[in-house]
Amino acid sequence: MHRGPANPEHPHQPNEIEDGSPAPTSRTGRRNIARNYRSSDNVRVFQLPQPTICPHCAAPLFHKETKNLCCKLGKVILPAIPVPPQLLALYTDQTTRGRHFRQNIRAYNHVFSFTSMGVTLDETLPAFNQGLYTFRAHGAIYHKIGSLLPTPGNRPRFLQMFIYDTEHETSHRLAENNGLDTEILNEIKDILDTHNPYVKTFRQIAQHTQLQSCQLLIRERPSTDRQYILPTASQVAAVLVGAEDFAESTDRDIKVIL
After folding, report:
1. Labelling 80: which of 1, 59, 88, 159 has CA 20 to 30 A away?
2. Where does the record place the region Disordered (predicted)?
């Protein structure tokens, strides 16, 4: 008597995969199953044409991508940013100091960041605890900027370190991660003060010692997506009627109250 498969939806034996080769039985073998995957299906190979080069910004463009995608036919011009020689030296330094910087580069980037990240993590995939580490976000990712001054009793963090109590700026960063190198922290601080225009702007705020109330609000979800309007001035001024009741107004994307 011929015996058919126990489950008609899975006709293969449990110790075989579709191409007839034995299936891995151990957990280690199953983790490498994608690496050893073999397909018996005949797939037609389709090769895309060679990318074209935008004549305005020299950006490589894949097949069907238009020159309006990268620089809008030369209307958007981004100046080249030269690499500071001190920073380049940190990337190419082959001594113990340089290797320490590169091995901890994410930690150094974190202590000099302006904003904190807001994200809703999806823990379903990392919960299996197998394979490579997976960071899976659910929904939008935000970069949040808080008050320019720390709350009483708390040390400054993120953007606040560029403005408040700058004499102890390095110690505040070491409090975030005491495994970092003090000399490298001071060197990166000097590089940012010299070459980063945003750091220079925030440093100017620290020079205003008589600020009584200062709040910077950036709305997380702007009312209109994809705004590509180029700035026409380096300074923006506005007269806000009823500025004291700023919490009741929700029709401005960025609002600064001094």
Report:
1. 159
2. 1-36
Residue 143 φ/ψ, nearest 5 degrees = -110, 115
On the question of pLDDT at 9 being above 90, the answer is no
Q: What is the pLDDT of residues 189-227, one digit of tens each?
A: 999 999 988 888 888 877 766 656 656 555 555 555 556
Two tokens at 53?
């080069």
90 lies in the same domain as 186? yes
Q: Are 79 and 140 in contact (CB under 8 A)?
A: no
Residue 69, in any domain of the structure: yes
Q: What is the pairing mode between strands 52-53 and 60-61? A: antiparallel
Domain extent for 62: 41-78
| 129 and 193 part of one domain | yes
* Backbone conformation region of residue 121, classed left if phi is above 0, alpha if psi is from -120 to 50, else beta: beta
Same domain, 122 and 65: no
DSSP state of 16: B
